[in-house]
Design brief:
One of its GO terms (biological process) is response to antibiotic. With 276 residues, the protein is mainly alpha-helical. The protein has twelve helices and no strands.
């Protein structure tokens, strides 16, 4: 089904920017209202990473030798912060696919609203959700004995890198949700989230893997963010002599920017082609 957007009056660039932000905020409030009507789903999404931390800490913590010594949670938490950013990908994919399959996205596109508002509103809502989820994870880590040792500025920089990764993954989630066409089609994609997360240095040193598999894990964008946040928080990490291991900090910025450069235009193009 094709949709026709009504003709809109000409606006100045500043006026168009304000119009886009106003419409985007409307979409954001719409998504937040949906979460308020289904608090159980949102709370489970926030609690799930905490459950994973408790499981790994309780079941495997005593069997894993922390590099450089120290407590297991000191090593685990920065990696789990990174995994939490990845878990948010499923929320984005499901919400976008649901709206697209029910025709909600087409109805938005037929309204006299800025074309970017639907995507921007989705991004804003999911980023707010991710900020709350990351705050809960940090609080859980503090209760379990995790601490940062790099000072407030370094800790804020680490949080910034985590949210930068989440913002990049948002665009991947939007594209996958638009392509999937419905929540049922996402099952096979969601299964891949776990292998992507585990095929990194979050839990295991890539040096212990077969050479080809370790190379993939080392170049996983999650590995760069996990290593960089461990360094900024002053927590123990795997280290390594490879180029990617030695340059985790700049790569924690380069990878999200590269992912955004790839998935943002693809998402926008796919959104514009919906219903055509």
């Amino acid at each position: 089904m094709s949709t026709t957007t009504p003709a809109l009056p000409r606006r100045s660039p500043l006026s168009r920017a304000g119009w886009a932000l106003t419409d985007a905020w409307t979409i954001t409030r719409r998504d937040l209202n949906h979460w308020a009507l289904r608090p159980g789903t949102v709370i489970v999404g926030w609690a799930f990473p905490v459950m994973i931390v408790l499981m790994f800490g309780g079941l495997f913590g005593g069997a894993i030798s922390v590099p450089g010594g120290g407590g297991y949670f000191e090593f685990l938490m920065p990696g789990m912060f990174t995994m939490t950013m990845l878990f948010g990908l499923e929320t984005t994919m499901t919400a976008v696919a649901t709206d697209a399959s029910r025709g909600v996205t087409d109805r938005f596109r037929s309204m006299p609203m800025n074309a970017s508002a639907v995507v921007l509103g989705r991004c804003a809502a999911d980023m707010l959700n991710s900020i709350v989820g990351l705050s809960i994870m940090i609080g859980a880590g503090l209760l379990l004995g995790w601490r940062w040792h790099g000072g407030p500025a370094a800790a804020l920089a680490a949080v910034g890198l985590l949210l930068l990764l989440r913002a990049a993954l948002l665009w991947a989630g939007i594209l996958i949700g638009l392509v999937a066409g419905g929540p049922e089609s996402l099952a096979s994609v969601q299964i891949l989230v776990w292998p992507v997360g585990f095929l990194s240095n979050v839990f295991v040193d890539p040096a212990t893997m077969p050479a080809w598999l370790g190379a993939i894990a080392a170049w996983n964008p999650l590995s760069a963010t996990a290593s960089a946040t461990r360094e900024l928080f002053g927590n123990p990490g795997w280290g390594g002599e490879s180029w990617i291991a030695q340059n985790a900090m700049p790569m924690a910025v380069v990878w999200p920017l590269l992912l955004t450069a790839i998935f943002l235009p693809l998402s926008v193009r796919r959104f514009r082609r919906l219903g055509s």
